[in-house]
Amino acid sequence: RDATVMFRGIVTTASHAVNIDSTGYVPRSKLFPAGIETGVRRIVLPKRFVAFPDGSPPRGARVRRLERDARVTFYADGTYGWRYLDSAEPEQREQLGEPAEYILADRGAVLHVKGVVNGKVLVHSPKDIVIEDDLVYAVPPGAAGADDYLGLVADRSVEIAAPDVTGPGDLTIDGAIYARRDFVVRHYYSSSSG
């Protein structure tokens, strides 16, 4: 079946135009059912993301630094695992820190993410972040007791992986996403898209 990307919440952009690059026509009303507002006031952001402006993480927060391209998987039990893509080593798994976990990639490293977030976590790459599958909160937003949080911050792009990675069907993403350059959805109008 054909599937297309859909942004369920209102989308705002400082740009006056939105590039919907596809092989077919997708009506804006289907892509942005809650609406899209262009030409909004620009938010001036720093040239480079700095995780800790004062030099150290918030009290009690933990920091995991990943030196090269890695896959990070979140689990509903409040743990997460990581494995370097160029390694045959098994996934390393750890409990998310309290009050928050910071997963920071070193320069040039791409992070691939998926899973169920049970806790508060910020994922940053000075390059790109690739979303490979659903990335959802253990307790859905708006439900009683919902306090999970995921922030994805990329100095270049946040990308939805191609359909041969994400698989068929819809992809659900809970979280705040900041991509300094682009938010990219590959092949979103192909017949095998999810």
Which terms would index this structure?
globular; single chain; 4% helix; mainly beta
Word description of this protein:
It is a single chain. With 194 residues, the chain is mostly beta strands. It is 4% helix and 37% strand. The chain has helices at 28-31, 163-166; strands at residues 11-13, 36-38, 62-66, 70-74, 79-84, 92-95, 101-105, 111-117, 120-125, 128-137, 149-154, 157-160, 176-179, 182-185. Strands 6-5-4-8-10-12-14 form a seven-stranded mixed beta sheet, with no helix packed on it. A five-stranded parallel beta sheet has the order 3-7-9-11-13, with no helix packed on it. The protein has a two-stranded parallel sheet with strand order 1-2. The mean pLDDT is 85.
